[in-house]
Amino acid sequence: AWFYIFPYYFKDYLLSLLTSIFFSSNFYFYLTRVVYAAEDSILKPFLHTWSLGIEEQFYIFFPIFFIFLLKFFKKYSLWLVLTIIILNILFSDWMSKNYFQINHYMILTRGWELMAGVLICLIERKHSFNLNALTNQSLSFLGLVLIFFSIFFFNETTRHPSIVTIIPILGTMFVILFAKDNTATNKMLSLKPIVWIGLISYSLYLWHHPILAFKLISHQENNYFLNDYFLIIIIFSLSIFSYFFIEK
After folding, report:
1. 18, 49, 96, 137: which has the fewest Cβ within 10 Å?
2. What is the C-alpha separation between 127 and 78, in angstroms, rounded?
3. CB count, 10 Å around CB of 4?
4. What is the pTM of this model?
């Protein structure tokens, strides 16, 4: 960054780094009017940390709310969480039409995506249902279909988060809930290469964006030694290193 980024942008780079450390880079990128899908967004090496900010804010504040919920409304906790999720989806859909920028970056419109995991936990605790093998096969496979549909058919024009975001969230929920041991989905996701990528996935997430960003910032996109295949090797190598020597 010191060698390649101009002074004005270097200040922006340092602020994005500082706010990411304190789990608030989502606020920073919103306040500096960074449009996530814009072409120049790739030039911000820490742009991807906005989602970590939202996650950490959720992990800090949601438990306080949930303790209150369990203390006074334990009997209705599942239905209250479901109600909050539905209201939050409707709110994020409205925001996606009227205030798309803040909608993308804020926990008030993203919280329901994380609360879907809470809903799964409550469903499994309160309703430990055992469905037949065919139903588990079908619903877990449907979950994969919904996830892959989102990968290939969502683009920068898709309003997100909004009602359409239900598609990948529901797909993920179906995989978690119904991919039991004997299902094809479970067997596929249990393959060693996929499990291995899953183990280093957080490191992959952290490393990929800065490396791709600095490739463009340093104007090395035409450098043969920094082609995409070589960068993939670098990203995976750094991810394996940070998994074993930092995460573990």
Report:
1. 18
2. 10
3. 14
4. 0.85
Torsion, Cα 58 59 64 69, to 10 degrees, reads 70
Q: Report which DSSP code applies to 158.
A: S
Name, in order, each residue with C-beta under 8 angstroms of 30's C-beta and a sequence gap of 6 or more. Answer: 101, 102, 104, 105, 106
CB 69 within 8 Å of CB 87: no
Give the whole-angstrom CA distance, residue 177 versus residue 121.
9
Residues 6+ apart with CB under 8 A from 115: 62, 81, 84, 85, 88
Cα-Cα-Cα-Cα dihedral sign, residues 140, 52, 119, 125: positive
pLDDT tens across 72-131, in order?
A: 888 888 899 999 999 999 999 999 999 988 999 999 999 999 999 999 998 888 776 678
What CA–CA distance (Å, rounded) separates 166 from 241? 35
Place of tokens 């009227």: 98
Q: CA neighbours within 13 Å on the CB side: how many for 189?
A: 18
Q: How far is CA 5 from CA 14, 21, 46, in A?
A: 11, 20, 14
Q: Are 69 and 52 in contact (CB under 8 A)?
A: no
Looking at residue 41, what DSSP letter applies? Answer: G
| Residues 156, 153: Cα–Cα separation, whole Å | 10
Which amino acid makes up residue 86?
I
- What number of other Cβ atoms are within 10 A of residue 17's Cβ? 16
Mark out the alpha helices in 99-162 (DSSP H runs).
Answer: 100-105, 107-126, 133-153
